[in-house]
Specification:
17% strand; globular; five-stranded antiparallel beta sheet; 10 strands; 6 helices; alpha+beta
Amino acid sequence: MREILGRRLQRLRNRLKSLRPAPGQSGDQALLDAALTCATAWQWPVLPGVGRSGADSTRCACPDPDCVVPGAHPFDPGLLAATTDPRMVAWWWTNRPTAPVLLATGGPAPCAVSLPAAAAARAVVRLDAQGMRLGPIVATPTRWSLLVAPYSLERLGELLYAKDQVPSALRFHGEGGYLLLPPSPASGGGQVRWEREPADAGGLWLPEIEAVVDALVEASSGASGGGSRLAY
């Protein structure tokens, strides 16, 4: 199956060569390749982020002058347009070659738990030492996101309700949410990257949300002074 998808992906790339921006125009092959890989190889629904505008490309292209995640959110198309159709994905990034790649989380797609970058790096080292199996990890300069198997909002609510306390630094990207994927530009500067790349040998594996949250809460407890290892 992976060989078939790989051949289809290569044929699509070949067809797109004639549609590439002319020399001197902006374009990013890496973003198109990443979006096509997500959509075809992993069957993750993706869509282009709104991107940035202005002479210095620091302003979000959406109408909100005070946007808190400039360039790194859905706008047009909206989140419901996310798809695994390679023709649609190719059309989007052929017309908007510098658009960030967004994963629509939830449903059949992966979800994620994110936390501040420094705290995440410490937590991952601790979890690796404990022998816990983690899935792909998306990293920006400020936050890391641990991808997990799809979960419902009801399931997440029951999980959090059962906890005495959960670090406030944790964020949950579940049903109806989205996640910025590599190699997109990060909203606060820098670039999104894979801290731990997806490994699809034998099928792309993702941990369950309960295991990840339990491990992160445990990693956060008992910090000196009663603090949290997951704090900023």
